[in-house]
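User: tokens in, sequence out, please.
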């Protein structure tokens, strides 16, 4: 699988390209998408190949992002605005380079962390002769069942990790807000306390009165 990335993500774009280069055959990537930025990826797909694009925003803002998928002719196959997560399956209508982009251009100060999984084609059979006319042996059937179960476990683990990362991000954001609110309340309480002290002091302070005696 040939996966290339480009966009206007500044220094984070280079980090994304590095991740892609380190895992050129991987279909799962997590990358940073800064505010007012757009990141695109390109994939060479053969006609008739079934593909699935799944993405989820892990951290940042309201956990939403714009997503757009185009075929080699520029025809829009999928377009969603401000989505937190979604999945889209399609079959390539022709050979060529397909392009899908994630945009955070509507955000002015919040960057996002986006995860996507782009699957191209079907998985190779566990055994080269798995599709033969004769039935599989008991050992082969057990291996195929275990293989399918392990793939399901990997998918569940990926989604659980994403939910854990998203929950942790929300908890840290809530903790920061609570800390700032507590500091603000402490400052207000201190100011009110000092004000009350000076106010009470003014009530009990000695006031000198001047009396005028009129002599006869």
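Assistant: Sequence out:
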């Amino acid at each position: 699988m040939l996966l290339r990335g480009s966009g206007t993500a500044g220094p984070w774009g280079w980090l994304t390209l590095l991740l892609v280069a380190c895992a050129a055959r991987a279909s799962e990537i997590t990358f940073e998408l800064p505010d007012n930025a757009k990141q695109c990826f390109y994939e060479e797909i053969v006609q008739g190949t079934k593909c699935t694009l799944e993405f989820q925003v892990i951290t940042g803002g309201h956990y939403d992002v714009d997503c757009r998928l185009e075929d080699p002719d520029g025809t829009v196959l999928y377009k969603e605005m401000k989505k937190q997560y979604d999945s889209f399956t399609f079959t390539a209508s022709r050979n060529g380079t397909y392009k899908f982009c994630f945009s955070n251009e509507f955000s002015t100060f919040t960057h996002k962390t986006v995860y996507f999984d782009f699957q191209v084609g079907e998985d190779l059979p566990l055994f080269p002769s798995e599709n033969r006319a004769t039935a599989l042996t008991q050992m082969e059937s057990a291996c195929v069942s275990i293989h399918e179960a392990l793939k399901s476990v990997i998918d569940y683990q990926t989604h659980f990790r994403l939910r854990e990362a998203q929950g942790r991000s929300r908890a840290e954001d809530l903790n920061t807000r609570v800390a700032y609110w507590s500091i603000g309340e402490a400052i207000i309480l201190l100011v009110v306390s000092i004000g009350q002290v000076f106010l009470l002091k003014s009530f009990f302070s000695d006031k000198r009165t001047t009396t005028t005696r009129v002599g006869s």
